[in-house]
Structure formats: structure tokens, C-alpha cells
Specification:
About 40% of the residues lie in helices and about 15% in strands. With about 220 residues, it is of the alpha/beta class. The chain has a four-stranded parallel β-sheet with strand order 3-2-1-9. A three-stranded parallel β-sheet has the order 6-7-8. The chain has a two-stranded parallel sheet with strand order 4-5. The longest helix has 21 residues. The relative contact order is 0.17. Bound molecules: 3-phosphoglyceric acid. The site of 3-phosphoglyceric acid has 12 residues, from strand 9.
Length: about 220
């Protein structure tokens, strides 16, 4: 267990900032601000920009500089170097699909919150050993979904999750209803098709609909 973390935005606060975290794959830097603005217009502030495109770090930097009201973070942060580059680009948090001990250690030494990904109890226990208590659960649907996360809550009641992978408007409330789920990630608000068509108003519509859809469940918690 370590308590060396010097994170500016603690995961607890991050997870409380919005029930739905859009997972973004952005190829062109010029699309960054229109996409972020379309999400902000629906009150979706926490944005995960995945490091799956060559321009991802520049996208993060662009959003962080131009839109301070957005809480932009990096996704697909799979190692120490990507964590450092994300932080240097202005990311306010980093999310990883899985974990390695070196990444957990780097997260503890860094200045932005790291949300490591897990899909097994043993990985979770490694994360807990390094002082983590907020995790991504990935790939959520393929790894047992709602039932798995609910079961994990038995032995690990203080751990909070942001499940991602196969989540959409039809099943998001099943996840958000769980005590140990604070928010859910998903790519459905900003699909490749929407980005290709530059249909920014559709992003605002999907995000507004999604927020309205989860409102009752979130309020009831
Ligand atoms: C992720 O990186 O978290 C997932 O690719 C998002 O999963 P989804 O595309 O099924 O929403």
C-alpha cells in the first residue's frame, strides 16, 4: 500500500463529475474542439481521448488549452512513457485498459490520476496493493458485465468502477444502478461514423439523451 500520490484531481472527484465518459478516437486535430464543444453543450465534461491515433496527444493538448471547463484525460495509457506524455500534454487523468506493476508504480509517482483497468480479481488485488481504489472494468460486457462487478462488490466493497466495453444506452442503467459503479465509459456518443460526417449536433443530441436517460438512476443513488 502506498500513499505517495500527488494527484491534482483525485479519482473520487473525477468519477463524480459525470455518469457517462465518452471514449473518443480522434484522427484529425481539427475535429477536437468541435467534438469537445458538442459534448460540453450536453453538460458532458469528462472526456477520454484514447491514445490510439497519432494525433491523440495533440488533441488532448488542444482541448486542454482551449476549453478549461472540459476535464480531458488520456485513454489507452498502457505504459509509463505514455502516462508521462499524457500528463505533459495537459491530460487531467489517465485510463488504462489493463495494468502492469510498472504502470501502477508510475501512476503513484505521477501528478495525474491513473485509473487502471482490470477484468479479474487478481489484477484488482495487484492494484489495491499499490494503493488504488478506483478502476476501469474492461472489457465490461465480455468479462461478465453487471453480474461480475456486482460479485466483486462482495469481497471488495470499497472499490469503485468505471466499466467500459460494450456499454450503450440500452444497458448503461444496469451498470449505474450498482453501488460500486460510479460512471460508465463508452464510444457510442461519438462513433467513427458521426466524426466522419462531422455531425456535431448529433453528438450533442446523443449525449443529451444519454444524460436524461440515466438521470433517475444517478439521482436515486
Ligand atoms: C474502451 O476503450 O474503453 C472501449 O473501446 C470502449 O468500448 P466501446 O467501444 O464498446 O464503448
Amino acid at each position: 500500500m502506498t500513499d505517495l500520490k500527488n494527484w491534482q484531481l483525485p479519482p473520487k472527484d473525477l468519477f463524480a463529475m459525470g455518469p457517462i465518459v465518452p471514449v473518443l478516437v480522434i484522427e484529425n486535430v481539427e475535429d477536437a474542439l468541435p467534438i469537445a464543444e458538442a459534448l460540453l453543450a450536453a453538460d458532458v465534461r469528462v472526456l477520454e481521448v484514447t491514445l490510439r491515433t497519432p494525433s491523440a496527444l495533440e488533441v488532448i493538448e488542444t482541448i486542454a488549452k482551449a476549453l478549461p471547463e472540459a476535464v480531458v484525460g488520456a485513454g489507452t495509457v498502457t505504459n509509463r512513457e505514455l502516462l508521462k506524455r499524457s500528463s505533459d500534454a495537459g491530460a487531467k487523468f489517465a485510463i488504462s485498459p489493463g495494468l502492469t506493476k510498472d504502470l501502477l508504480k508510475a501512476g503513484n509517482e505521477g501528478d495525474i490520476a491513473l485509473i487502471p483497468g482490470i477484468s479479474s480479481i487478481s489484477e484488482l488485488m495487484d492494484g489495491i496493493d499499490y494503493g488504488y481504489d478506483h478502476f476501469k472494468f474492461f472489457p465490461a460486457e465480455a468479462s461478465g458485465g453487471v453480474k461480475a462487478i456486482q460479485s466483486i462488490g462482495g469481497p471488495f466493497p470499497n472499490i469503485k468502477f468505471c466499466p467500459t466495453g460494450g456499454i450503450n444506452i440500452n444497458n448503461v442503467n444496469n451498470y449505474l444502478a450498482l453501488k460500486n459503479v460510479a460512471c460508465c465509459g463508452g464510444s457510442w456518443l461519438v462513433s467513427d461514423k458521426i466524426v466522419k460526417e462531422k455531425d456535431w449536433t448529433q453528438i450533442t443530441k446523443l449525449a443529451t439523451d444519454a444524460i436524461a436517460h440515466v438521470q433517475d438512476i444517478v439521482t436515486a443513488k
